[in-house]
Write a structure and sequence with these properties.
The chain is an all-alpha fold. The chain has five helices and no strands. Helix 2 packs across helix 4.
Amino acid sequence: MAERERRPRIDQPREGGRRFTVPSVFTEEAFGVVSEKFARYMGTPYFLIGMTLFVLIWVGWNVLAPPSQRFDKYPFIFLTLMLSLQASYAAPLILLAQNRQADRDRFALEQDRSRDERNLADTEFLTREVAALRIAMRDQATRDFVRGELRDLLDEMEERGLVVTRAPEPDEAPVRSPGSPT
């Protein structure tokens, strides 16, 4: 029974983690950065001109050079192999760069979406506040309304004779309307 417990179990991870560790130079992030730089360089005119010159020199050398100094017995087979090898590495590097760009775009989209949601919430809050202020302002008496009410009240009081119709002179006593207290 004790022997069974000492044997490693394959349904559980090993203690101590992996035995082989990747050097820090070859981390996923570092490799991704290098692949993006390479993919960007492959899309430049310098790369295309360089590849064109390389192929022209290769073909020219293998066609025009004496047979003893040629790279290949058949002038295009080794070149085709080299270009295929270059393409077999370039395609995955380009895909890796595109995946990293898609991840960055997705992250930026999520940030934009959350910022837009906050802006929408702020706008809705401000809209509600403006609507509340408008409702509150409708209930407020304006200066013109108060003046109009005071004029109507003054006119009504003058009709009943309860108001002084002229201002008194500074040296004389005020004129009182009939029925007013003394």
